[in-house]
Amino acid sequence: MSTYSYADCLKNSYRVNWKISDVIGERHFDTARSWLPSRLSGAARVTSLTPDEKMTLNHVEMGAYAHLFGFVEEFIAPRMVGLARDFALDDREAFDALTNFAAEEVKHMNLFKQIRDRIDGKMGFPLELLGGQQETARFVLSKSRGAVLLLTACIEWFTQRHYLECFEGAEDLLRAREAMTLAGVLDLADQSVDALAGGERQRALLARALAQEPRTLLLDEPTSHLDLRHQRHLIGLLRRLNRERGMTVVFVTHDLNLAGELADRLLLLSGGRVIRLGTPAEVLDETVLERAYGCPVWVERLGAGGRPVVLGARL
Ligand SMILES: [Fe+2]
């Protein structure tokens, strides 16, 4: 079972430091497309509607989601500020975690406000489902602290329940288990991702990506936290995904030998400029590498194929 401390929560929250613009940016809502995934929307199941009407209902549902979430955020953030105040002098870790939580909730409030404004703009009328957002927040906040927290937890639970019911069919679970098996994390299935060590977490994230059955995998330093055995496993897995399933694997790494061993083509960058694009033999070349690193580099060729192996900088 996972346990959480204020310090852990704060650390995790800082790691996922996001901005509203990261989420919504310049995105706009295109009325020609669905705004909610079909499995989350009930619109397609209303057989009496025309395709155009189903699309409009899908848009209204998206507006309803944004509206309801905004409704809830209205009382969560003030409650967290109130809780934080109690710890202000006596428990700095708790105070930091709770004020940061409140700040996150304020971001949620502003995010949903922006989403709603954009949706309203596209629909041409305000999707005001229920009025009295502030009055509701005031009423909820007038209740005991425990009641407010319980209500908040219930809302989280039923939202997640709804989401899981929409997305977790038997086939999805099978796919998830297969992805976990491929990434070698099936034995960690019952653990929270927050509780995993660096290498385990890295493999879990790979499983998450594989469960979506992507055509292209984009990886950033894929072996950085892995021990030798898991590095071997990952290299073998990525090669199989590429050769047997036709998956394109693009990865960024500082590990020249990993790049040379795994990739068919390498792009060597230095200071944001392309130094060389080509096969491992063309890129992992002493002259090319010296240009990139500004020092002499020692490269040996291995075996009959002459695979280049970078031994390091020449002293
Ligand atoms: Fe929130």
In terms of topology, how is this protein built?
Elements: H1 6-15, H2 20-23, H3 51-87, H4 92-123, H5 133-141, H6 145-167, H7 170-183, H8 198-211, E1 216-220, H9 228-245, E2 248-252, H10 256-262, E3 266-270, E4 273-278, H11 280-283, H12 286-293, E5 297-302, E6 307-313
Parallel strand pairs: 1-2
Antiparallel strand pairs: 3-4, 5-6
The structure holds fe (ii) ion.
Fe (ii) ion binds near residues 76 and 108.
Task: Explain the overall architecture.
- The protein is mainly α and 315 residues long.
- It is built from twelve helices and six strands.
- The chain has helices at residues 6-15, 20-23, 51-87, 92-123, 133-141, 145-167, 170-183, 198-211, 228-245, 256-262, 280-283, 286-293; strands spanning 216-220, 248-252, 266-270, 273-278, 297-302, 307-313.
- The strands form three sheets. Strands 1-2 form a two-stranded parallel sheet. A two-stranded antiparallel ribbon has the order 3-4.
- The model has no long low-confidence stretch (mean pLDDT 88).
- The structure holds fe (ii) ion.
- Fe (ii) ion is lined by residues 73, 76, 105, 108.
What characteristics describe this protein?
mainly alpha; two-stranded parallel ribbon; two-stranded antiparallel sheet; 6 strands; binds fe (ii) ion
Show unreliable segments: none
How many helix segments?
12
Largest sheet features: 2 strands, parallel
Beta-strand segment tally: 6
Which hetero ligands occur in this complex? fe (ii) ion
The helicity comes to 55-70%
Q: What gyration radius follows from the Cα positions, in whole Å?
A: 25 Å
What is the rounded distance between the termini? 51 Å
What would you call the structural class? mainly alpha
Strand content: 5-15%
What is the H/E string? HHHHHHHHEHEHEEHHEE
Overall mean confidence score, pLDDT: 88
Q: Spatial order of the strands in the main sheet?
A: 1-2
